[in-house]
Structures are given as structure tokens and as C-alpha cells.
Amino acid sequence: MAKRVAIVATGQTDHAGNRRDVTGVELIHEAVARCLADAELTMKDIDGVVIGNMDHFEGINGVELWSIEGTGGIMKPTLKLTTGGTTGSTLAIGGYHLVASGFFERLLVVGWEKNSESDTTGAITTAFDPIWDRLVFAGAISGLAVEASAYMERFGATEKDAARAGVRDRRHALNNPHAHLRKEVSIDDVLRSPMLSDPIKALDICPRTDGACAVIYACEGAAEKICPKPAWVWATANRHLYSYLGDAQWYPLRSLELAAREAYAKAGIREPLKEIDVMELYTPYSFANLSWIEALGLAKPGEGARLIWDGATDMGGELPTSWACGVLPAARSTSRPGPCAGRATGPSTSGSRSAHEGLWPRSRSCASPSSTRRPAAESRCPTATASSGSTAPTRSCSIFCA
Amino acid sequence: MDEILVHESRIAVPYAWSAGEVLSRFLKALRDERKILATRCPSCRKAYVPPRKTCGNCFEACGEWLEVGPRGTLLSFTQALYDSPAHPRPSPIYGLIRLEGADTALAHLVGESKLENLRLGMSVEAVFSESRSGSILDILHFRPAS
């Protein structure tokens, strides 16, 4: 029988467009040191380390070894997990599995990215098949644009609908002092920003960000001693879909639908819009907020935009999403573990590009440090996180409860 | 057997890795002063080359700077006799050099000596490049100490 597992501490760096003042290893250490301080633990208390990033963003292929002085993993079991744009979620899920297995009691999970160090499009292209797609299709923005165009044509959604979601995420970023972009924008600002790849404009897409995030997972018995209100993991799920871009199913997003359905079933959630209190999504561009929430079961096909215009996903709404800022303003680091908000890296908090499902800031994966200390309004207060790769092959969902 | 096609290409992604504040100080000392700097952990007292911002073992900030070398001890070496585009020079002699005053060894090239004249434990010294740009190759290589 698997053990119950919780996130008991989080730490994240301040996310910025260029952290030239530190190397990647030093950046990682900042998040780890903050996480240990949050837990009031030292590395002597940690059984093992899991680290992840999208390795071609930094061009370091042995990250688990190269970063060891930053993670504190010297002479400890140290593993690397990397799944491209969903590394954050993968870290969140993998860390959970390792602790639930009973082999680790207290596990440090770290996600990071220094997107300033490479050409993002060039680096992402190395994730594509070298004989086929790599020669004829490059980067994430164009892949997302294809997804957006197909959705708009099908349901009559508009660029203004997407802009409304982007405005929301950038406003929510003001809640997160660590977010990369902390400035409100208007719908007009979004619509007038430079076109990058039709229909995606500069303010529709997440920035490239340098940042790191760390979380500590602990099993039942250990968790309560570290944190008065651990963020228990209720469910995680993930699905992979295809190899070639031409095989992708742009709508409905079957991988995210099935991942969400599994996560809800495990957590006993039947009506996510009503039962979940907050949702942190790895939505790397504004249009994702329209179609992806449909795959998550929050709105019927084609009705995602209406839910957003109605304010249901705003702070104070029925189900605030990306309340710690999401990926759009936070950063595009992919590897945040845990519930976080932002697209940066790490497992925990909010925003890296990997899988997050949690509450805090960073990349697509996340686990969030601060969410663990947040008082729950009621005994059952699930938060969900969802992430996906920028070109849709992989989707993950996780549900946390504090 | 039918013809099998092989697609040849290369990954060409530009990178710009920041050395950060700590390693920038080290590299600037090499470039501007021909000095090799280390940092010391206040807890375990280990002197690191290249310098570390934080001791990976103790997680303490290594705030103390010291100059080490330019002489050191050749702890081990070998010569690569096979070809690879990754080698920094043809048939390079690779060495591990513990500089005087340092507790860690620096991996670098050994030059101005035939392989058969090198010995484990011998004293070597840094040879600085005349044109320095703020890179570890501002040390051209190490040679047997005069």
C-alpha cells in the first residue's frame, strides 16, 4: 500500500529575464536553501534529490551531477527527470511516487531553468524528430499557434477572448512577489502587441525566464513533524499521445481530458468547477486558457471563453485559476515541481514548464512552497494543477489538498 | 541489402552561459592579473579551484578569497592518442593539478614536455596565454616547473 505524501516546504528564486549574476548551479542553490529554511531542515534530513529541467535549454546534459553542489545531493541518491515542457509536472509526479513507494521519507525535488542562456526556439526544436519534424517545423510558439487557430475556427473564439485570459493571469501575478512579470496589462495592450505567430502576439505568450524552485515531499508520519499543515497529494495523472506533430489531436485535447478524468476520479471529484477551490495551470500562452479548461471539465466544448468573461476564474470567482500567476507572467521555466505558478522550473511552485499541478509559481510543474503554509478555509480544500507540453503531446494533472 | 539512408545533420543552438559573479571574479583575475584565485569554505576550510560560491558539502557561503598556484602538483595525467573533434588540441596531454594552497585539483592541459618526462607527483606551473579573454584557457597549459 502506497504511503500518503505531502509537500511540506517550498522555496523559489525570484524569477527574472536574466539572472546573469549567478550560474545555473548557484541559481538552483538559492531555491534549495530557501526550501530548507522553509522546512527548518538541513540536507542531513533529506534522503534523496530529484532534479529536472529541459536540458537543451542550458545545453548541460548531466544536470544531476553538474548541479550537485547546488542541490546538496553529494553522496545522496540523486536522480534526474526530464520530459521537455512537462518536466515540472513530471518532477511533481515522480517525487510523489518515490516517497509514496516508501523508499524515501523526505525527498528534495528541484526544477530550474535559465532560459536566457540559449535560443529557446532552437533548443525546443531538438525535442523534435531529427529526420522529419525538425526539418520543417520549429519551436513552441508556432505549435501553439496551430492549436489556437484550429480552436478558434471550430468555436468562433476570438483573439479578444484569449487576451481576457492573459490579462487575468498577469493581474494574478501581482499575488506572487517572485513572478517575473508583475505588471497589469489591458486587453488593448495584448491585442496591439507585436504578432509573433498568428494569432499569438507578444503579450499572449509567456516570457523566457531564469528561475528555480524546490519542494520537499514527506510521507505520512514525517510530514506532520515538519509542517503544521502539509499539502497532501490526492492524485496525479499523466498521458502521452504522439510522436509526430501531424498526429497531434488539437481538439479535444484527449491527453489532458484523460489525465484530468483520472485525477478527479482518484480524488473523488465529480464537479471540478464546484469542488476545487483553486487551480494552477501551466498555460504557456493565453489561448490555452480557453481550450484547456474545457479538457479539464470546467466548461463545455466552446464555452471556455464565456467562463473566463464571467469572471469565474478570477480571484474571488468560483474557481480562481493561475492565482499564483500561472506561466504567462511568471516565467517560462519549465521545470517547477508542484503547485506553483510561473513557468520556470521547478517542482514546486508555480510555474515551470513541467507538470505542475499545484499551487505555486512557476513552470509547468510545480509544487508550491508557500501553499503548504497557507491556512485552508475548510477541511477539504483541493487545489489542482495541470500542465502540458507546448505542443500538446503530454498532459498532466495533480490534485493537492491542504 | 536494400539501401539504408542516413540523415546527417548537426545540432546548432547558440548558448551564452553566464559565469556569475563568483566565477567572473576568478576569470577576470586570470585575464587581468595572471592570478589564480580560490575560495575557502568557512566550515570545512576546503579551498576550491575553480572557486565556489557555496560549499556543496557544508552549504556555507565561501566568502574568503585566496590566491593559489601558479605552481602545483601533477596528481595524474594521460595523453589521448585517438582523434576526436572534442579534443582541445591534437593528442592532448590531460592532467589533474593541485595548485599550491588549494585542496581541489584543476583539470587542465599539460604542455612543453614529452609524455615520458612527466611523473606523478611532479611539480608543474601554469603558463599564461599572451592573449587572454577571461576564459580557463587564459592558462595555456601547465608545464614542468623550472
Overview of the molecule:
The complex is a heterodimer of chains A (402) and B (146). Chain A has 402 residues and is of the alpha/beta class. Chain A is 30% helix and 19% strand. Chain A contains 14 helices and 13 strands. With 146 residues, chain B is mainly beta. Chain B has one domain. In chain B, the strands form 2 sheets. In chain B, strands 6-5-4-7-8 form a 5-stranded antiparallel beta sheet, with no helix packed on it. Chain B has a 3-stranded antiparallel beta sheet with strand order 2-1-3, with helices on one face. The N and C termini of chain B lie far apart (62 Å). The chains are: A alpha/beta (402), B mainly beta (146). At the A-B interface, α1 and α3 of A face α1 of B.
Radius of gyration of chain B: 19 Å
Distance between the termini of chain B: 62 Å
State the major sheet of chain B.
Answer: 5 strands, antiparallel
CATH homologous superfamily of chain A? Thiolase/Chalcone synthase
Q: Count the helices of chain A. How many?
A: 14
Going by helix content, strand content and strand pairing, the class of chain A is alpha/beta
Strand order of the largest sheet of chain A: 3-2-4-7-1-8-13-12-9
Count every beta strand of chain B, where a strand is a DSSP E run of 2 or more residues. 8
Total beta strands of chain A: 13
Strand content of chain B: 25-35%
Low-confidence stretches of chain B: none
Strand content of chain A: 15-25%
Return the CATH topology of chain A.
Peroxisomal Thiolase, Chain A, domain 1
The tally of structural domains of chain A comes to: 1
Helix content of chain B: under 10%
Helix content bin of chain A: 25-40%
Order of helices and strands of chain A: EHEHHEHEHHHHHEEEHEHHEHHEEEE
What class would the helix/strand composition of chain B place it in? mainly beta
Q: How much is the average pLDDT of chain B? A: 96
